Amino acid sequence: MTFLTEAAGRVISSDMVAVFHATDDALLSSARVAASMLEGTATSELHPRAKQKLLESLSAGFDKMLAGRRDMVNAHGQMIVIQRQSNLATVGFGCWGAPSKLTGRDGSAPMAELASSTVA
User: pLDDT digits over 67-113, tens only?
Assistant: First the structure.
């Protein structure tokens, strides 16, 4: 059994929430930049090739942030599994998937589902 301190669990939970909020803010800002660029260049007579290259660059950046978010979702799921197999299995830290009990009554997936599921 893994032994964790409750203080460490609270810090990790808070940091995970912050990561998702920050990532979502970055994704939103990226989407706004793309929209602003499209609006700002609508009447600029910018060559379609140049605009295409710019749009593809913006899209690639967005996709990389989204892929990073997916990796954090997977890491979060792994953290939940570790917590549920630790001395803090029944402690809820206020993070998504925090157990009220191991029965899944909190609406989260049962531990076996979390262990086998990751975002592809």
Answer: 999 999 999 999 989 998 999 988 888 766 655 544 444 444 444 44
Cβ–Cβ under 8 Å, residues 19 and 71: no
Distance from the Cα of residue 54 to its chain's centroid: 26
DSSP assignment string, 43-104 = TTT--HHHHHHHHHHHHHHHHHHHHHHHHHHHHHHHHHHHHHTBTTTT---SSTT--SSTT-
Burial class from Cβ neighbours inside 10 Å (0-12, 13-18, 19+) for residue 36 reads: exposed
Q: What distance separates the 2 farthest-apart alpha carbons in the chain?
A: 65
